[in-house]
Amino acid sequence: AFAQTQNARSVVLLGHGTGAWWAARYLSEKQPAQVQKFVMVAAQTPAGRAPDLQQLAPKLKLATADFFYQDNAQARKAAQERSQASKRLKNDSYKQVSLKALPDNSQAGQEQLYRRIRGWLSPQNPGD
User: How many Cβ atoms from other residues are within 10 Å of residue 89's Cβ?
Assistant: First the structure.
């Protein structure tokens, strides 16, 4: 609603960690027309919540970017399951981007993440 009052040209919802699950659940249940894109960063399903992100995210009917850290075996496995689910559902609007964690330099890691997200958004929105 706030983005609409600011005359936003497009709305992107970004969920980080378990926030990605909450955002995916919101998008799945409400299907808000004003949200055109969804970005998940290091997505996780909160303990005890269902359905998990492997079931939820690939079914979304909007452009979705799934950024995950390949250094973490559990995150890599979950991301692979989401990717396989999106392929089974023939969801061409679901894209994954693997990142390398940069634990010694958090500022460089944040810059890498920002650039990768911006890169995913930019080709679809020239002039932003």
Answer: 12
